[in-house]
Amino acid sequence: MKPQPTMSDSLLSIDSRIATITFNRDDVRNELTGTRIVADICNTVDWINNTLDISVLIITGDGSAFSAGGNIKDIRDKKGIFDGNPALISDNYRHSIQRMSLAMHSAEVPVIAAVNGPGIGAGFDLACMCDIRLGTPATRFGETFINLGLIPGDGGAWFLQRLVGYQRAAELTFSGRVINAEEALQLGLLLEIVEREDLLPRATALAADFASKPPQALRMTKRLMQAAQRLELGDLLDLSASYQANAHHTADHQRAMDALLDKTGAEFQGN
To answer: Average pLDDT in the 67-94 region?
Structure first.
């Protein structure tokens, strides 16, 4: 396994083929624009994409919040990435928070958000960038940019409507209202709601199920799911045929077939 990336404001743990990032800035509710959490996410995703020993990524927060998104005081006082003329602020967004959006969208493994508390603004959008979201009764989501006279600057307008459809995404974005865990579950933003003490164990169990599958096929499936969001059917079928041809020639495919027919377990090796 390649050396792990250095973390600044997060903790990174590895268990078997599962990587877990835990945001470690509860003092600022794991906000994204005034900490190094964005860099931690980007560095970890890049490392995972180049480390075939990892099959699943879990993202969670330490403390009371998943992520409060942007630093409200910095926004008010025009500090950090919010300082400067429009051209400079635009560059600041592209080289900071938007790097996270592109990194998350490029992740080659399934990503599970264990949403331990509120995910607000960019924190909500980060959860939407994950493949699966698990929550607790304390989970809250809000696409709250409009309340500050701002727009979703991190790609939230792209991610949210792909999860809940245009009409519901429009209502949430235009109103800026905060929804509770039950409504998030009803809208399909959360897969499940569990008690706080069960959140990480449930996320880990789900990740372990995914990680037990043939690693190459899992990564190809993730890339195929991402491509399906933007390709016409004919183009997707061409890509599927190419991926499938490669999958047929992996040793793990043969191991899976033998295990199925012989009714035995299989130990996949990623080849």
So the answer is: 94
